[in-house]
Each structure stands twice: as C-alpha cells, then as structure tokens.
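<goal> How does this chain fold?
<body> The protein record starts here
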Amino acid sequence: MTAPYQLTPKEIKEEKRISDDFENGRYQVLSRTDPAYEKLYAAAGSSQTPVHLRLSEPLIKILKRKAQEEGLSFQSFVRSILHKVASGQLKS
C-alpha cells in the first residue's frame, strides 16, 4: 500500500493563495441567469474527460459553499471556474 500524497511547500502555498482569493472575492462566478453563462456552458462542449484532483478539506468546504450559493453542483461549479480561467475570463 502506498503512502498518501504529501503536498510540497510550493503546492501548499499555491493552494492557500487560491483559497484566500476565493475568500476575498477575487473570483467572480456567473449565475445561471447571467447571459454569459449559457455561452460559456456551450463553449465547454459535451466531450468531458475525468480529472482527479487532491484538494484540502478547507478548500473543498469553501468551494461547496460557494457552489451551493450559486445553485450549482460542486463539480459544475469547479468546472465553470476552470473553464473561465482557461478562457481568460477569470483572472486572479
């Protein structure tokens, strides 16, 4: 059996920065009623590949809370954030 993955100091620092950015409102989330939402959703396409991430429990709690506030599932919320970052529409 392999030992659980341990984050490097660099990864810990980056994860804390992202968590702090979320807590400080540096990211904007579109609601489903926002006209840009449908455009971004369509641009994401229907072909999806599973991706596995290791996230800290505090970050997951923050993301789940924010997803619930937006009326999205956790996975949809995270997917929308990643898509916005990749498309240059969300910058920290």
